Amino acid sequence: MSAIKSIRGTRDLLPPETAQWNFVEAAVRDVFRIYNFHEIRTPIIEDLQLFQRSVGEETDIVSKEMFAWEDRGRAESEKSGQWIALRPENTAGVVRAYIEHKMWERPGLQRLFYIGPQFRRERPQKGRYRQFYQIGAEVIGPPAAGSESPTVDAEVIEMLATLLDRVGISGWTLELNSVGCKDCRPAYNNALREALAGVIDKMCSDCQRRAVTNPLRVLDCKVPADQPIIAKLPVMLDYLDESCRIHFAKLQELLTTLSIDHVVNAQMVRGIDYYVKTAFEFTHGALGAQNAILGGGRYDGLSENLGGPPAPGIGFAIGEDRFVMARQQSGDTLTQPVDVYIAPLGEGMDREAALLARELRRHDVSAELGNEGFRLKKSLETASRIGARYALIVGENEVSSGEFALKNLGTGEQQKVPRRELAKIIQSSR
Ligand code: HAM
To answer: What is the pLDDT of residues 312-371, one digit of tens each?
Structure first.
């Protein structure tokens, strides 16, 4: 029979790599704690409309990459025909939850973070998966709580710099842009349409459609032949109104004060419709073509689009898969060898070994149990193969005398150790 394989674009994360993931998640949770962010967990499935109305119908994410299906009710009486989607990102879900639970009634700004899987039907390649993981954060709240201020943007970006530092990723570049707001975007859209009018017949069919429906999305086009045309199109930065210009200038000033280097990339619009004003990406050289390690921006107006009250917000999502990859390039392997392999020698010794393992584990010594059916040679070979630091031999003589042979597998040295001192000696050489 043929073996069943994992689905294209998904993968199993196995030890020892999972240690990297756990390290990253523990480190970011710690950073979130000191910046006073709190965890939110939203469902992996949502109403498809949520993404159509937030991420946007003309984006690649919604128009090409969604996993969505029509849900059939189980009983006759149940309403059928609701379209359900696997979430391609988590900002929309967070804002939906903010509205659904009237979170604006809580004091101050909501400072939320999440860690979890997202789904996009992209062409899989290195650093790009159909099930991938994001570590994200959102700051959202009523304007009266200060949610529109560029100080929030600066704080979020500064937190990211701390996060990357904590996790041991250096050599990143912060690219920054302003994509305007609902007041200044229309004039830019007109300028874009005008500029596109003369060249659009030379562009791909997606661009031809987007030039009419949502011209900003033309800038996301990845078709190589369209790139020279896109490079010559007008940029939003030249069309910002007064308030967007001031917001952007203040943000840059704050980042400079905080010594966070950044470059302005006027071409970067990010492939999601909800962004206004600030848009940013951190890129990393070690990642190759999929070099965006994280992306984010401001989404004032999104709450209203989803039926909520005004709730300006800003956030980001780190691609955790790429994060771990960038860390691995730095050569840190984080392998944690097991402290001791307990080798029972002879009949009846499995029991004694289990008792010893229980004692040692209670003292925070990690232990793996052998089998009394193994000869000593096989036990010692197994202990070395699994990378244990010590082998502890448990035979009838050892049990009756209360002294055990402890072999350091690194140096080959063997010593007799009283039962009570085993944990201390094993721990002391970590
Ligand atoms: P995004 O740029 O679509 O933004 O995704 C954020 C990050 O997720 C990317 O920079 C990348 O590292 C990672 N990523 C995206 N697609 C894949 C994939 N197929 N495989 C592996 N990694 C991937 C958002 O999702 C926004 N929700 C971010 C945000 C939060 N904006 C405001 N708040």
So the answer is: 999 999 999 999 998 877 666 677 899 999 999 999 999 999 999 999 999 999 999 999
Q: Please give the residue range of the domain that contains residue 263.
A: 17-184+240-330
Contact between residue 179 and residue 236 where contact means Cβ atoms under 8 Å apart: yes
Grouping H, G, I as helix, E, B as strand and the rest as coil, residue 72 is coil
pLDDT exceeds cutoff 90 at 309 = yes
Closest by CA to 10, choosing from 136, 88, 135, 117, is 117
Distance from C-alpha of 296 to C-alpha of 280, rounded to nearest angstrom: 5
pLDDT given at position 330: 67
End-to-end, the C-alpha distance of the chain in Å comes to 47
Q: Is residue 21 part of a domain?
A: yes
Q: Are 293 and 287 in contact (CB under 8 A)?
A: yes
Q: How far is the CA of 272 from the centre of ligand 1 (A)?
A: 10
Q: Edge to edge, what strands does the sheet with 131-140 contain?
A: 38-39, 110-119, 131-140, 313-319, 292-298, 276-284, 172-178, 263-264
Distance CA 271, CA 263 (A): 19
Cβ-contact 383, 343 below 8 angstroms: yes
Mean of the per-residue pLDDT values of the chain: 95
Spatial distance between the Cα atoms of 385 and 387, rounded to a whole number of angstroms: 5
Q: Are residues 157 and 269 in the same domain?
A: yes
Domains in the chain: how many in total? 2
Instruction: State the pLDDT at residue 396.
Output: 96
Ligand 1: which residues within 6 Å by Cβ? Answer: 89-91, 120, 122, 128-129, 132, 134, 136, 138, 292-297, 299, 315-317, 319, 321-322
CATH code assigned at 411: 3.40.50.800
DSSP-derived secondary structure letter, 104: G
pLDDT score, position 334? 72
Pocket test for ligand 1, best of 167, 322, 327 (most atoms within 8 A of CB): 322
pTM, two decimal places: 0.93
The answer to whether the peptide bond before residue 117 is cis (omega within 30 degrees of 0) is no
The reply to whether 39 and 101 lie within a common domain is: yes
Nearest CA to ligand 1 atom 33: 315
> Does the structure show a pLDDT above 90 at 59?
yes
Closest C-alpha to 318, from 98, 162, 177, 179: 162
Q: Give SS3 for 68.
A: strand
Question: Are 369 and 351 within 8 A, CB to CB?
Answer: no
